[in-house]
Amino acid sequence: xxxxxxxxxxxxxxxxxxxxxxxxxxxxxxxxxxxxxxxxxxxxxxxxxxxxxxxxxxxxxxxxxxxxxxxxxxxxxxxxxxxxxxxxxxxxxxxxxxxxxxxxxxxxxxxxxxxxxxxxxxxxxxxxxxxxxxxxxxxxxxxxxxxxxxxxxxxxxxxxxxxxxxxxxxxxxxxxxxxxxxxxxxxxxxxxxxxxxxxxxxxxxxxxxxxxxxxxxxxxxxxxxxxxxxxxxx
Length: 234
Known about the structure:
- It is built from 8 helices and 10 strands.
- By secondary structure, it is α/β, with parallel strands linked by helices.
- The strands form 2 sheets. Strands 5-4-6-7-8-9-10 form a 7-stranded mixed sheet, with helices on both faces. A 3-stranded parallel sheet has the order 1-2-3, sandwiched between helices.
């Protein structure tokens, strides 16, 4: 009666397989670039869902790095084969143009290459910024181990990686966008709406969260003014 697709590849596979069965997706970073929907204001004929890319998250992260840290250079690690990652990296580059920050990049193809990529940026990057790249996030502990040893703060594009040792993220709970997608599925299954009548949605909540233990391990001194800006986890 309905296909629920979690992530860009599964949503694309579902859409390629059927034009008749309703599809609801979640955790898709760039639904438009992935050719799932015409725009974020218009669903596809049989597909809609929620994206895991808040329009303000990257801009706010770059702004925080620029204004609240001593960093001059931001290290980016991503899989160049992931369309969703390329879309985010372009947004990082656009946001960085508004600052004096420089970007250095290291691309990977598999999780086995992530640690080596992080090590290649040591001495070049003052901070790491890991977007919601499936390959790198799957091996985020490899980045954290390098970061802790070399005292390099790790910013991420999602909150789940904070529990795995990253320093800070402007993000949202994946539970929330899953719930939003679930509400769409309910409306479709009850016959209250067709997929084409439900616009794709961004995450509704965006917040800055800082991991205190990671801050200590990565050589960051917490500022009093951050108390008003962020939530803390231990």
